[in-house]
Inverse folding.
């Protein structure tokens, strides 16, 4: 179960909003150097304001745009514990799972949430709650392979612990 | 079943249906200098792998910043070259072109394949009847390491384009019209499958623009089932199909079917700040531009350079406008050179750049300053995409871009192209 402070974002937050391409392709090429620029055009100084465990709650099409995996990696690095959104771009969704950032699709909670609310996410129980507003929503529980990857802290950690991706075993 | 369901069923060896998660052999996996550095890190530093199971099906491209504009890029390129040498990976170095174009020019991607590219515009190659998925670096690294990946069989939307486009209306205009109608999340989580009588008027060059831009309405991928034109194209290049998919669309239960009448469409632009902000060129004619860019994986193919050369032949790029032309690949470049298009364009005052993503992604060779306005044949016009966050990008067809270069302000290309296709 994750419990954190909510940062409310709108529809169509692109990977360019999360980390602009000009940093990825500019002289700044390490993840550490990119940290101060995370979401800077949406929430200035986000990296200073965000606390460990905070949850992003957003509208539709979160993470649209480029395939840059730096986006979920950086959100995780600055302390974001989960992203709850009405829908995700498929690349961002896969990337987030791979890097161990919890992603949950929900409809009601994004509608009522405001920045500063307290939000809870229980991925295994399939529940998302806005505690401040008293709104609870059942969501699709994630497949067990995905939960296993998230629990390990990402696919790399999972492979290090188990020798292969979780989905590979069943196929051999 | 949609074409992709049939393709995945044939790959997996049983009938699959949308929503199912299946593990597939990946036929081709690629990454470029934007995404490959992280692939290298995942393989070497994070997973400490000595060997990549699918090294022979892996391709690296140096296309985003090519040639290197600064030391940081040069170091990244160096790291990629070394990694490729070590693992026996085929590298397409500076000058070869943009990954999505080179994979089809070189016959690396062929009809019937499952392709993963560490780039969001990988679905471009879907025009050849391929299941092409854009992924992140870690997903690509894992496909290279194990030769397999999981995919969720996607639901398919059928988009039917009917009628003959008017001269001056290119496939870019058609797909922008579609995106303007459906919105940037219009096909989220779905594959778009193109059908309809318009397709027979579109060459493979034009078709790649359709699948490329489909990404901008949220499509997970896009595909054009193999037809006669695809087969001719494949044959002309001395290639073969990778997998023959026995497909009958009339039996397909698509999640949605949308029909567009192409005969009524006009040349359009996507005005900033998003791709679905589509306006007829005729409505905003006169907006002045500082820069014109013709190139990218969307519209840097031979047909695109040809239409630009036709419009600019004997003319002169308007004073105060920089017109940059970057053919998408070496093959396109040399062919455009042989046919005299590049000479025509250079004589008209265009800047002929090497094949590179550069300007499209605000990387180099045409970065916009504060307040500048550009018209580009690329696929994204988000704030800051081509440079300063307060610069503006209008997305358009190469015909509209070239006509705009001549006049110095947004210009409907139709008057320059009367009778061309007849
Ligand atoms: S040309 Fe632009 S959209 Fe295409 S791969 Fe390069 S950066 Fe991406």
């Amino acid at each position: 179960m994750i419990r954190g402070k909510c940062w409310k974002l709108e529809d169509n937050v692109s990977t360019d909003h999360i980390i602009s391409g000009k940093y990825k392709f500019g002289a700044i090429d390490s993840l550490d150097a990119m940290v101060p620029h995370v979401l800077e055009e949406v929430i200035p100084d986000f990296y200073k304001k965000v606390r460990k465990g905070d949850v992003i709650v957003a509208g539709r099409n979160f993470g649209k745009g480029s395939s840059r995996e730096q986006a979920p990696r950086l959100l995780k690095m600055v302390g974001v514990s989960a992203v709850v959104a009405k829908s995700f771009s498929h690349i961002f969704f896969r990337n987030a799972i791979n890097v161990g950032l919890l992603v949950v699709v929900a409809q009601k909670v994004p509608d009522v949430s405001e920045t500063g609310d307290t939000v809870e996410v229980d991925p295994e129980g399939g529940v998302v709650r806005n505690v401040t507003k008293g709104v609870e929503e059942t969501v699709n529980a994630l497949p067990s392979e995905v939960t296993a990857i998230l629990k390990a802290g990402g696919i790399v950690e999972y492979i290090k612990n188990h020798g292969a991706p979780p989905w590979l075993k069943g196929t051999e | 079943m949609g074409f992709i369901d049939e393709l995945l069923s044939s790959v997996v060896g049983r009938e699959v249906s949308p929503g199912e998660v299946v593990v597939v052999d990946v036929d081709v996996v690629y990454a470029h200098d934007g995404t490959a550095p992280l692939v290298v890190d995942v393989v070497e530093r994070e997973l400490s792998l000595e060997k990549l199971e699918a090294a022979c099906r892996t391709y690296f491209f140096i296309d985003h910043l090519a040639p290197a504009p600064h030391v940081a890029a040069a170091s990244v390129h160096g790291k990629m070259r070394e990694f490729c040498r070590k693992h026996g990976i085929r590298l397409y170095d500076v000058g070869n072109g943009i990954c999505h174009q080179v994979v089809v020019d070189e016959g690396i991607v062929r009809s019937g394949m499952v392709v993963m590219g560490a780039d969001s515009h990988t679905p471009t190659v879907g025009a050849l009847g391929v299941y092409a998925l854009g992924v992140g670096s870690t997903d690509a690294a894992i496909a290279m390491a194990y030769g397999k990946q999981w995919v969720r069989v996607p639901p398919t939307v059928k988009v039917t384009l009917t009628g003959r486009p008017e001269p001056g209306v290119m496939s870019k205009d058609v797909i922008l019209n579609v995106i303007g109608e459906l919105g940037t999340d219009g096909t989220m989580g779905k594959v778009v499958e193109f059908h309809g009588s318009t397709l027979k008027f579109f060459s493979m060059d034009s078709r790649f623009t359709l699948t490329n831009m489909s990404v901008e309405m949220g499509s997970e991928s896009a595909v054009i089932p193999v037809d006669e034109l695809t087969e001719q194209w494949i044959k002309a290049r001395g290639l073969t199909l990778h997998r023959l998919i026995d497909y009958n669309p009339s039996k397909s239960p698509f999640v949605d079917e949308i029909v567009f009448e192409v005969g009524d469409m006009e040349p359009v632009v996507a005005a900033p700040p998003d791709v679905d902000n589509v306006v007829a060129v005729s409505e905003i004619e006169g907006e002045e531009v500082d820069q014109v860019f013709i190139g990218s994986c969307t519209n840097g193919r031979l047909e695109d350079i040809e239409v630009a050369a036709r419009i600019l032949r004997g003319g002169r790029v308007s004073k105060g406008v920089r017109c940059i032309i970057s053919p998408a690949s070496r093959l396109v470049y040399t062919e455009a050179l042989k046919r005299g298009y590049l000479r025509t364009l250079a004589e008209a005052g265009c800047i002929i750049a090497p094949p590179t993503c550069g300007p499209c992604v605000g990387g180099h060779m045409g970065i916009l300053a504060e307040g500048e306005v550009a018209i580009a044949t690329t696929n994204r016009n988000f704030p800051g995409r081509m440079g300063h966050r307060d610069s503006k990008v209008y997305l358009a067809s190469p015909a509209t871009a070239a006509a705009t270069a001549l006049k110095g302000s947004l210009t409907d290309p139709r008057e320059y192209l009367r009778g061309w296709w007849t």
Remarks:
- Chain B has two domains: 3-260, 268-416.
- Chain B touches chain A through 47 residues (CB under 8 Å).
- Residues 37 and 79 of chain B are 7 Å apart (CA to CA).
- Chain B has a mean pLDDT of 96.
